[in-house]
Write a structure and sequence with these properties.
Number of helices: 16
Family: Belongs to the PrpD family.
Distance between the termini: 22 Å
CATH class of the largest domain: Mainly Alpha
Helix content: 40-55%
CATH topology of the largest domain: 2-methylcitrate dehydratase PrpD
Structural class: alpha+beta
Mean pLDDT: 92
CATH architecture of the largest domain: Orthogonal Bundle
Number of domains: 2
Protein name: MmgE/PrpD family protein
Pfam families: MmgE_PrpD_C, MmgE_PrpD_N
C-alpha cells in the first residue's frame, strides 16, 4: 500500500496490544508514533538503516522536549500523547527527507493541523487508531512540505498556535534542559505487562509481596493501593466489560495478578477473563487511597491477612533499566513471544533490527521472501 496508509496501519497495529515502550517526559508512548512513519517513508525512498535510525532519534528527542515543556499539562487536559506524536513524526520524516529549516517548520505546521486524540476514547480501539493517525499525519506533513504546501512558522509558540490552543502552559526552559546522559532516549521504558503503564507500579509491588511471602487469597482480608490521582484517573474506571477496558482498570489488573493470571500475556485480556466472577469480586475489594505527593509512576500495595499481619511493598515503574544486556534479553524474549515465529526465524528478524545501522536499505529488514520492489525515487 502507499507509505501513508502503511504508516496508519502499522502505527495502529503496533499499539493495539498497548504493550509498547513509554517515556516519562511525554508522558506516554514515543516510538510507535515515529517508527511506522519512518519505516514506510524510508522504504519508499530507499533510505539506509543509519538514515532511518538518525531520523528516529531526532523525532524521539523532539517529542520528549515538547513533553517536558508541557510538564503533563496536555495529559491533564485529556490529550493523548499522539498530539505530540504527529509533530515528532513530522520532524523525524523531515530529517529523513533532508529538509532544511523552513521546510521542517512547514512540516510541523502541517502536523499540528492533523494532531489530536483524547483520553475519553481509552479502553476502545480508537486509542490505537490515534497512534496510527499520528504516524500517518507526520509522514504526510513532511511530504506535503516537500511539495511546497505551507503552514505558519513558529506554529508551536505563536499566538493561537499549538501551545495556546492545546495546552496553554509551556516552559521553554524545561524543554531545553539537557537529558541525563545526553539523550532522552536513554530513559526510555519497556513494558513487562500488557496493560496501561499506570498499572505497572502496583503490579510490581504485588509481585514483590508475593515473592517475599506467599499470600493465599483466602487469607487476605484487605488490599489497599496508594497512588496519585491526576494521571491514574485513566485506570480508575468502571468495572471492565472486555479486554481493552481491562487494560485500563487498575483494580482488575491487580486482581488478575492476585489470581495468578499472567498479565504479561496480551491474550489474557479478553472477554472470557473479564467475565470471571472471582476476578470481579477481588477487584471490587481493592481499596484505592489517593496520595497527591506520590510520584505518578509509583504505587504502594498493602495487604492485610486474617491473622492481622500487614505486608507492604512499593513499586516504581519509572526507573530505566541500567543493565543493557539484561534489557536486551528481556525485550528480545518478549519479541519472540509476540512474533509467533519459530525461534530461528524470530532471532534472524531481531538481528536485523539490532544491526539496523548497518543495513544498506531499510527494506532489508524484511525476510528475503517478503522483499518489496526497490524504488528509485530519491533525487
Amino acid at each position: 500500500m502507499s507509505p501513508s496508509l502503511a504508516a496508519l496501519v502499522n502505527g495502529t497495529a503496533g499499539h493495539v496490544l498497548d504493550y509498547d515502550d513509554v517515556h516519562n517526559a511525554v508522558p506516554g508512548h514515543v516510538t510507535i508514533n515515529i517508527a511506522p512513519a519512518l519505516l514506510a517513508l524510508g522504504e519508499d525512498i530507499g533510505a539506509s538503516g543509519a538514515e532511518v535510525l538518525t531520523a528516529f532519534i531526532a523525532g524521539f528527542e523532539m517529542m520528549c522536549k515538547l513533553g517536558l515543556g508541557f510538564a503533563g499539562s496536555l495529559f491533564q487536559q485529556g490529550w493523548q500523547g499522539t498530539t505530540l506524536g504527529a509533530i515528532a513524526a513530522a520532524a523525524a520524516c523531515s530529517r529523513l527527507l533532508r529538509q532544511d529549516e523552513p521546510q521542517t517548520q512547514m512540516a510541523m505546521a502541517l502536523a499540528v493541523a492533523q494532531a489530536g486524540g483524547v483520553h475519553g476514547n481509552y479502553g476502545s480501539m480508537t486509542k490505537s487508531l490515534n497512534v496510527g493517525l499520528a504516524a500517518q499525519a507526520g509522514l504526510r506533513a513532511a511530504v506535503w512540505a516537500s511539495k511546497g504546501i505551507t503552514g505558519r512558522t513558529e506554529i508551536i509558540e505563536r499566538g493561537k498556535g499549538f501551545i495556546e490552543t492545546f495546552g496553554g502552559r509551556f516552559d521553554a526552559a524545561a524543554a531545553h534542559v539537557p537529558a541525563a546522559g545526553g539523550w532522552h532516549l536513554y530513559r526510555n521504558l519497556f513494558k513487562v505487562h500488557a496493560s496501561c503503564f499506570l498499572t505497572h507500579a502496583a503490579l510490581m509491588a504485588w509481585d514483590e509481596l508475593n515473592t517475599r511471602q506467599a499470600l493465599p487469597l483466602s487469607d487476605i482480608t484487605e488490599v489497599r493501593v496508594r497512588i496519585e490521582a491526576e494521571r491514574h484517573r485513566i485506570v480508575l474506571t468502571d468495572p471492565p466489560k472486555d479486554g481493552l477496558e481491562a487494560k485500563f482498570n487498575l483494580p482488575f489488573c491487580l486482581a488478575m495478578a492476585m489470581h495468578g493470571v499472567d498479565t504479561s500475556d496480551p491474550f489474557n485480556f479478553d472477554v472470557k477473563t473479564t467475565a470471571r466472577a472471582d476476578l470481579q469480586a477481588t477487584a471490587a475489594r481493592v481499596v484505592v487511597d489517593i496520595d497527591p505527593d506520590l510520584w505518578f509512576e509509583a504505587a504502594e500495595v498493602t495487604v492485610t491477612l486474617t491473622d492481622g499481619q500487614v505486608f507492604k511493598a512499593y513499586g516504581d515503574a519509572g526507573k530505566p533499566v541500567t543493565d543493557m544486556d539484561a534489557l536486551s534479553r528481556s525485550v528480545e524474549n518478549k519479541a519472540l513471544r509476540l512474533f509467533g515465529l519459530q525461534k530461528a526465524e524470530g532471532t534472524a528478524l531481531i538481528r536485523r533490527f539490532r544491526d539496523l545501522i548497518d543495513l544498506p536499505e531499510i527494506t532489508d529488514l524484511h525476510p528475503d521472501e517478503c522483499l518489496l520492489p526497490k524504488r528509485s525515487v530519491r533525487q
